[in-house]
Amino acid sequence: MWNVLLSFSGLVALIQLLFLPFFPESPPYLLLQKGDKAGCLKAMKQLWGEGNYQTEFDDMMKEKALTKGTKIMNVLEVLKERSLYPQLSVMLILLVSLQLCGLSATANLQESIIPYVSLGVAISELISVIFCSSIIDHCGRRVLLWRGYLVMALILVLLETSLLLSDQFLWMRYCNVILIFLFIIAYGIGP
C-alpha cells in the first residue's frame, strides 16, 4: 500500500492547487514586496475578518522602512552571488548530511517494523521543527548549533555502544531506534 500513501501527498498538492487561487496574497507580501497598501489592508480584512488592523499595518510599515535599502534576490541571483557561496555550502552540507548518514540502516531491525521506524523518523523531524522554531529566538543560532553538535556526538557514542551490544541483548535494537530518533531531534534543533 506504499503507492497509496505516496499518492496521498500528490492529492493534497492537487487540492491546494485548486483552492489556492481563491485565497488572497499575504498582507506582508503585498505591502513589503509590491508596495500595495490598499491591497494589504483588503487582504487583512479578508483573512482576519472585519476589524482595526492599524497596529499590524504600522508594524509592517516599520519593517518596510528598515528593509528599504535591502535588495530582494530571487533564487537564481542568490546562486550567482559569489559572496553567499560559503553560507550556501554549509546549508547544503547540513541538509544532505542527515539524508546520507545511513542511521536508519544501522538499527539492525526486523523488516516488519521498518514502516513504524519511518513514521517515527517523520514524527521526530516534526518535533524538532516545532521545538526549534519556538526556542531559536530565545537561545540564538550559535548556541543551538554547538549544543546540537554536542548532543549529536553523545548520542552517536551511545548508539555505537548499543550497536555493539545489540547482538547480545535483543532489546538493545529498540534502544538503537530511540537513539536514532533522539539524534534526528538533536540534528533538527541544532544544525
UniProtKB/TrEMBL annotation:
Signal peptide: none
Positions of transmembrane segments: 6-24, 113-132, 144-165, 171-190
UniProt cross-references to Gene3D superfamilies, sorted A to Z: MFS general substrate transporter like domains
Topology of the protein relative to the lipid bilayer: Multi-pass membrane protein
Main localization of the protein described in the UniProt heading: membrane
Pfam families assigned to the protein according to its UniProt record, in alphabetical order: Sugar_tr (PF00083)
GO BP terms: D-glucose import; dehydroascorbic acid transport
Gene Ontology CC terms: plasma membrane
Location of this chain's protein in the cell: Membrane
SUPFAM superfamilies per UniProt: MFS general substrate transporter (SSF103473)
InterPro entries: GLUT (IPR045263), MFS_dom (IPR020846), MFS_sugar_transport-like (IPR005828), MFS_trans_sf (IPR036259)
Highest taxon in the source lineage: Eukaryota
Keywords noted in UniProt: Membrane, Transmembrane, Transmembrane helix
Location of the Major facilitator superfamily (MFS) profile domain: 1-191
GO molecular function (one): D-glucose transmembrane transporter activity
UniProt protein name: GTR5 protein
